[in-house]
Amino acid sequence: MKHFTMFLGAVAMLFVFASMSTAGESGEAVFKKLACGSCHKMEKSSPINPSVAEIAKAYSGKKEQMVEYLNGNSAPIVKPEKESIMKGILRKTQALSDEDREALAGYLLAE
Known about the structure:
mainly alpha, 111 residues, globular, disordered N terminus
């Protein structure tokens, strides 16, 4: 019985450490993991994709609105005519934890 209890304790610790390693990533890590930079360059916008700088300028002081957009609950304020392009990508940001979505918004706003 003592060995079984120790085994359960070890398994519980593994689950705790595993969840800690995936939750709460930095905004930059989330940006890279989702490959946002393949379309959104830091400074240079394209006719289709706004740059991170353009996004940051448009959402300055509106972090919660950006988080709502990343969660699929708000319309974009940057290039709204291109919204259909981002719809598929937003599934990835909607699947993020609230903490990671906040971190991504903070990174995009250079907070």
